[in-house]
Fold this sequence. Notes:
This protein is of the alpha/beta class.
Amino acid sequence: MYWIHPDYPDAASIFHSHLNRLIQMTNKKNGTPVYICIGTPAIIGDCLGPVIGTILSEYLPGQVYGTLDAPIHALNFNRSCREIKKQHQRPFIIAIDAALGNISQSGYILLKKGPLRPGKGVGKKLPPIGDLQITGVFQDIFDPKAGRQMAVFGKCISQGILKLYPAFQRPEQGDFVNIL
């Protein structure tokens, strides 16, 4: 389990390093990474998954589910997961969502192995999903500050994920795609 604060210098690189390590440790069958980005655009703090999904889908078509235009949320979660599992043979699922936490956890990105339990913080009973989970932790998803926090989370997580794919690095600068 790793806690990363997106305001740290090189936070996206630190996130990438931990993510890469967890994938190597847990993806023993070399399944294709599939990103399931959960949340609703209707709530600013809960649109973290769809924002990341929208960014990633531009670069990783066919591997990303849950965008601002086609979100995966409580009302379509079970159906969406069934369809995704039909489309991929032994996928390595990385689930991305916003989470609620206490004041000491708020503002951090949590990266850990094991399934994500979507909706748990708001009393939803949805089945767990994923081999790895990535969550941006908010104290209050309705707080006006949640928009800025969501953008900072989105940039760090998206850049860290895209850094897994060398094709998205800019060779002239040794840097990766600038997002947001």
